[in-house]
Amino acid sequence: MSVAEINPKFSLGKVFVSTRAKERLQRDLEVEPALGLHLRGYWGQQEDDRRWAANDHALQSQGRVQSIFGTSQHETFVILTDLANEKTFIFLLDEEDAFNRGLLF
Q1: What kind and span of H or E run contains 68?
Q2: How far apart are CA 75 and CA 24, in angstroms?
Q3: Residue 35 and residue 56 in contact, taking contact as beta carbons nearer than 8 Å
Q4: Would you call 19 helix, strand, or coil by DSSP?
Q5: Residue 59 vs residues 2, 9, 76, 96: alpha-carbon distances, Å
Q6: CB half-sphere exposure, 62, CA atoms < 13 A
Q7: How far apart are CA 48 and CA 38, in angstroms?
Q8: What pLDDT is stored for residue 72 in this prediction?
Q9: Positive or negative, the Cα torsion across 103, 72, 46, 35?
């Protein structure tokens, strides 16, 4: 399914994937379906409704939207799109601290 077929709410821009995410995630079975959901505004397994609301607000303000998804192999990964800078980052949840400190990409 192409991006045009899923009626996206925003553009992914340039996509960056961490080395560990490349090693542990199956692109066609896990990442691509999750990207489709992310583009449609389904934010995955968020801890609470505030994250969903923050993402919905970020769509209007050109902020950052973040989705969290799990795999059948018990890996949890993050898809984060910086709408203003047109960049999307995919990384494992346990890499989030390194991402936030600018150490991942």
Answers
A1: strand 64-70
A2: 8
A3: no
A4: helix
A5: 21, 8, 23, 21
A6: 4
A7: 17
A8: 87
A9: positive
CA distances from 21 to 37, 55, 95 (A): 18, 23, 9
DSSP state letter for 41: T
> What does the block give as tokens for 16?
């960056």
Strands 14-17 and 87-92: parallel
Structure confidence by residue, pLDDT tens digits, 25-67: 988 889 999 999 999 999 998 877 898 899 999 999 999 999 9
Residue with tokens 């961490």: 18
User: Percentage helix, strand, coil, to 5, in the chain?
Assistant: 40, 25, 35
The string of pLDDT tens digits covering residues 84-95 is 999 999 999 999
* Whole-angstrom distance, CA of residue 6 vs CA of residue 76: 23
Domain borders along the chain are: 15-100
Residue 8: Cβ within 10 Å count: 15
- Give the three-state DSSP class for 73: coil
